[in-house]
């Protein structure tokens, strides 16, 4: 039996946190609800490792849910942030740094224009508003299992039976909002075509994660993204790729570059801030000119383009732009994790499916192919819970939900890989006993 670590300080902090912070956390997935147990409180981080309040050390496969692609405490980023903090923390007025970040984003991704915001949620909400303002249409299509932040329009699930109308999946989202969001299964072009034909000239945008990372990792089937692109072209629909997770991770130009499919609007977050709160949405000039103050579609932010956040993102992106070997390294390490996990699981009696694209990977404890939300839901969550807690006790910090992808950072080296696979072998052996 693997011994649970001592986490007394985390336990005490969690109890204290619950008194003034709902559920003790500032974002629900941190609460460990889907794996059981209490969240861990962290105090510091270095390279590939995070340290909790009891001084336990973990190899970090969350990396702040993606942003820390260069590892924790990356010296160039830390130094740039420190220097900027001494110079000025915020103006709420234009700075040259914002131009530099916009230029870098456009160079790396090939988009024409970009607006900085403070989170991925804001980026996606604003992109939808822009698409609606540009087309003069109200409805959007999103995909079951894709996450685009907590904006009202996205917290919608498919209606039942023959209804194509969405239903709120959180109290507080109005029925009126839900009627404008249509949902289709991921990787199902026929379902999208049906929605479009049932709602002629009413669809403003199709928004999708190009490689889904919020139902585990689910890559697009061959031709699927190209198919969405073609449908958007045919019906005058704005094609929005939500690259909050994939942007600057799958390639310098994100999924657009990796998959060779261009969107009309793109949303960014996570890596773009290098660990600080930054989001962005951007795209084609023709559409972007409709945003305020150039055009009538309103969008704003007191701290948008904040110099501290911008310098962190800019330093991170410039490093990635100048060191393409980062992408080769994280892809290679993730491939070796896949190979190692596959071998371990094949030698066990446990059902499994591993999905991977580049440095995004996830394990579902089921035998079927995982290609959408329904098939992702067939994973055995009890196995996942055991795997998650077993790995945690071995000093490996994985996302606390079967519906999240692992995020592999550039500081994962040989010893971290060895430790991870050795831990997995022990945990899977215990699970199979
Ligand atoms: N879009 C995708 C694909 C995401 O994965 C996330 C967050 O995980 C978001 C949007 C929302 O980003 P944020 O949490 O920064 O608001």
TrEMBL record:
Pfam families referenced in this protein's UniProt entry, alphabetically: Aminotran_3 (PF00202)
Assigned EC number: 5.4.3.8
Subcellular location: Cytoplasm
Keywords carried by this UniProt record: Cytoplasm, Isomerase, Porphyrin biosynthesis, Pyridoxal phosphate
PROSITE patterns per UniProt: AA_TRANSFER_CLASS_3
Record PTM N6-(pyridoxal phosphate)lysine, positions in chain: 270
Gene Ontology biological-process entries: protoporphyrinogen IX biosynthetic process
Cofactor(s) recorded in Swiss-Prot or TrEMBL: pyridoxal 5'-phosphate
Recorded catalytic activity of this chain's protein: (S)-4-amino-5-oxopentanoate = 5-aminolevulinate
Signal peptide stretch: none
Domain of life, source organism: Bacteria
Similarity comment: Belongs to the class-III pyridoxal-phosphate-dependent aminotransferase family. HemL subfamily.
Subunit structure of this chain's protein: Homodimer.
Identification of the protein by name: Glutamate-1-semialdehyde 2,1-aminomutase
Native source species: Phaeocystidibacter luteus
